[in-house]
């Protein structure tokens, strides 16, 4: 079972190293899930003396007022032989064999965190002591509860200390070691009062009674120690600390333990309780109980760790990879993000994602409807046909057929198709732009980098603008080509006057009658409809070729070309991730490292048994 305590010690140290002190609600905490023993007591309750008696060394700072201003995680490691030494987690390569130096380092490290203003901090100090005179045990020494602030401390410190102590002992995995002096009324004990608030049934509270030897003559603590005055789930334990005179004389702690044993064994009041009194018994009993609690918590701890690892990995995946540090890494990262966006954009066009079908709707509905709204028959009204035919003839009326008039009628009618053709180009352009913005919003990596998102969006839209101009030019050329060269075969197949029973010898001016002009208008309308049907098929081909195909093929080509010319500083500016996201990823990464390490450590212990 000693391995279990060592396991929790190791995880606690990792928690502190990676910033898990059980306070940050924005991150999952492993610290609070670990069983621990918190030492609680008021000032001058003898709390420090109890801890030093368990350790067998004089190592804690002493003085007036609030001496302990940071939690001290005290990890005791029993060794078979060798010289006693101590190690601080913040000084990993330094061994302390002089415990007076340990005392000084605790005070100095406290000042480094809190300054010399007598403030308190919840960031713990980790101290490991290796000795053949200790049991395997971990204790958390908390600042002593006080009722008044001393000079140099804010008035709020009384509540600040109480809140810190409560934040530790209210956790269901915390074992409370409540230190109370026997020479004061137990009803006024700060430790018992706050312990009762969080553990009213006393199921995880151990009561320790100090200064039994300093009680007034004629009084004793037998009723308390026998659980008659205040009952707890576990038996009360009495201890006899060194006196102030002993402390001043630096009386050996081993000798003090021996005198403590002799006191209880020889006392007429406490002789029948001597076997379960004293600091040695307290240490052994706490070690055994902590082992049992850890063993019972292991399955739940494993389940919590597995669940939290999955949650952390999911969030880290959502936040994306951290930014590369070198220019090549940054360039590669930007290219990969752009390729992800480009792939999503293509999936929209190809139908894997929604949106590409809107382009077909332009060709199948919008373009035909726009062509239909042109109403060629109204453009080829009798008056307009007569006007254009006579104007085309000029001073010399046509001899056989009004060819120039035909051309003017056809050209003036076909030119109206430019409008729907241009509108089709613009409609597809709008759809492509919408798909670009949609694809950008669906590219998770781009959400990390606002500047890159803006740059990619602008580059894609610029490319689409250039493609639109090329498409418009090519599409309008299709319309213009129909005007520039007429299909002769169509007119050769038209019936002639003689074949219709007409008389070709009629006066040339008879050819301006309504019947004649109506037939010209009908012929032109037939030709225009034929051309319109052809353009209805060719305009979509031109638009797809110049816009859709090019967008799939080279949407970000220009952006990539410019990207290769950028310096490291410019590349860094594109990857300007939100500092809050960067900090969150770093914190999550550390927390994930902690949980994975804890999982491996627990598995090694449980599988090894």
TrEMBL record:
Pfam families: Dynamin_M, Dynamin_N, GED. It is found in: Cytoplasm, Cytoskeleton, Phragmoplast. Residues 517-609 form the GED domain. Its main location: cytoplasm. PROSITE patterns: G_DYNAMIN_1, G_DYNAMIN_2, GED. Residues 31-299 form the Dynamin-type G domain. Signal peptide: none annotated. Belongs to the TRAFAC class dynamin-like GTPase superfamily. Dynamin/Fzo/YdjA family. PANTHER family: DYNAMIN, PHRAGMOPLASTIN DRP1B. This is Dynamin-type G domain-containing protein. It comes from Populus trichocarpa.
